[in-house]
Amino acid sequence: MSGVELLTALGHGPGQSLDSVSIESLTDLTNTFTHYFGKGSAAERVFNSKEIYAAVIETAEKLEKKEVIIFLSEFFEFCFFK
What we know:
The chain has helices at 3-9, 26-39, 50-62, and strands at residues 22-23, 46-47, 68-72, 77-81.
């Protein structure tokens, strides 16, 4: 799914270009996404709030466009599901 679509569905527009070591709030998620999206790269971060994580998952599940990508590093294969 589109990160921009997800953030919009969560009620957040473009954030500040700030990197967070972990995600404590939707603002942290938005700012970290904006930071790395602007660089054309990705980042993995830990959600320290179960409530924020649950809200993100619940919102993502409601979006029409979903895509699951599974990377099996042992076999160097990608699987795409749309």
